[in-house]
Every structure is written in C-alpha cells, then in structure tokens.
Amino acid sequence: MKQRQIADNILVYALFIWMSVSLVMMFFYAPIESEMGIVQKIFYFHVPLAWNAFLGFAIVFFASFRYLATRDPKWDARALAAAEVGVLFTTLVLITGPIWAKPVWGIWWTWDARLTLTFVLWLIYMGYLMLRRYIESPERRAVLAAVVGVTGFVDVPLVYFAIRWWRTQHPQPVIMGGEDSGLDPKMATTLWVSTAAYLLLFTVLFRRRLALEHLRHELDEYRAQRDHMKGAM
Amino acid sequence: MTWVFAAFAAVWIAVFLFLVRIGRAQRALSEELAALKSAKH
After folding, report:
1. What is the pTM of this model?
2. Which residue of A has its CA nearest to B30?
3. Quick one: pLDDT at residue A167?
4. pLDDT at site A4
5. Rounded to 5, what percent of chain B is helix, strand, coil?
6. Cβ neighbours of residue B31 under 8 Å, at least 6 residues apart?
7. Which of chain B's ends, N or C, has fewer CB atoms near its CB within 10 Å?
8. pLDDT tens profile A93-105
9. What is the dihedral of CA A28, A31, A35, A37, to 10 degrees?
10. C-alpha distance from residue A66 to each of A7, A72, A74, A157 (Å)
11. To which H or E segment does residue A108 belong?
12. Which residue of B has its CA nearest to A229?
C-alpha cells in the first residue's frame, strides 16, 4: 500500500515536470504554423488526447477479453478504469477539435467521416458506462460490459483510418501519412513530448480510478461478511 | 491566443472535475469501510 502511494507521488511529480516542459516547448520551441497561426498549438494536446483515448480503449478491449476468459474481477475493474479515462479524453478531443475548427474552418462541426466516427466512439463507451450503472448483478454486469468492451473497439481503427480511407474535412495525417505528409522536426519533437505528458496524465488518472475500484471491492467484501454474519444470527 | 487558452482551460477543468469526483467517491467509500471495520471489532 505504501509502495503504491510512493509510486503515485512519483508519477504526479513526473507529470507536473513533463507537462511544464511540453507547455514550454509548445509555446517557445515549436514554430508558429504559417497558415493557421497560434491556434495550431491546440494540435499539441488535441492529438495526444486522441492517441491516449485510443490507448484507453485498447486497454478496455484487452481487459474485457481477459475477463471473459478468466472471470477474474480485477480485469473488469481495469476495463472500467480505462473506459472512464478513455471517455474523458474522447470528450476533450470532441471539445478541443471544434475550438480549433471554428477559427480555421469557420464552423464548429461538420459530419465528415473522422468527426462522426469519433462521436460514435464516444457514444459507444458512454453506452458502456451507462450499461454498467443499470445492471444490478455484478457478474451479469461484468460479462455484458466485457462483450461491449470487446465489440466496441471495432470503431477505434475506423476512427484512425478514416482520414486515410475517405476524403474528409479533417486534416490529413502528418505522422505516418505517406510521402506527401510530414511535420517540421521541431513540431514533431514537441508533439512526441506532449504525447508522453498526456500518457503520464492518463496513467495517473487510470491508477486513481483503479484504486477507487479496489476500495469498492474491499467494501463489497466487508458488506458480504456483515450480511453473512447477520444471516447466521 | 483566446482559442488556445479556451481549449487548454477546457482540458484542465475537465481533469480537475474528474479528480474531484474520484476524490469524493473515495472519501465516501473510505468512511463506510472504516465504519464497517469498527462495527466488526
């Protein structure tokens, strides 16, 4: 328990330092984009948030799969924690994207493939969290949630490849996007530093949420013991 | 700059609210657990 606390503290300090470095790089190291101007800086947290949301849903997929195979509740708890942080990050992607789009495109939103599929992704995992709230039985809840966690992941590669497969209003890929794509080396370095900072943020939030789930599990065990003792009397 | 600030503020407000929610739930569960433990002993 104490080791976990120390690890959490180290992670929070690392997050603070790394996030500060990424902010400094964002404003003072990365050049200002010639067409979009300063508003392009949103890219340095919009993209890392999206990539880390994908990571969250990949964890949901893996943990749900493991739960269905083993029926071990620890995998269900991991899936839930990752889904909540993934939904938080996707919500922020859907907020920061339109804030960037308004000054650049002149509109907040358009129903193109990338944007629509991201919204569908958010709906899928919101549905996953709502499903968990409305099912009383813990086993049934975990099994149904795991099925949604595995099948819902189908949308993640669709979101990723949408800008490669279809013509979209959303900008074309600048990382691994083919011959015509690319990013200024200073911009690319800033993007990777920022991605690492948001990975740390994801880790801190995931661990906190998971600790809450462990506490809930411990409480459930105590409640069961109490009810058992009451029944025996 | 206003757009960048608005987007960045949205991120940190949401993270803060998420942490507050977890903190409140954690406190409520810890109190209930402590009450159960003391009742047991």
Report:
1. 0.90
2. A215
3. 75
4. 85
5. 95, 0, 5
6. none
7. C
8. 999 999 999 998 8
9. 0
10. 25, 8, 10, 20
11. none
12. B40
Are A8 and A207 contacting, i.e. CB atoms less than 8 angstroms apart? yes
Which chain A residues have any C-beta within 8 angstroms of a chain B C-beta? Answer: 38-39, 41-42, 45-46, 49, 84, 88, 91-92, 95-96, 99-100, 102-103, 201, 205, 208-209, 211-212, 215-216, 218-219, 222-223, 225-226
Domain boundaries, chain A: 47-170+190-232
CA–CA separation, A38 vs A217, rounded Å?
47
* Burial call A208-224: b when 16+ CB within 10 Å, e when fewer: bbbbbbebbeebeebee
B18 neighbourhood in chain A, CB within 8 Å: 84, 88, 205
Say what the pLDDT of residue A144 is: 95
Regarding an ipTM greater than 0.95, the answer is no
Amino acid A175: pLDDT: 67
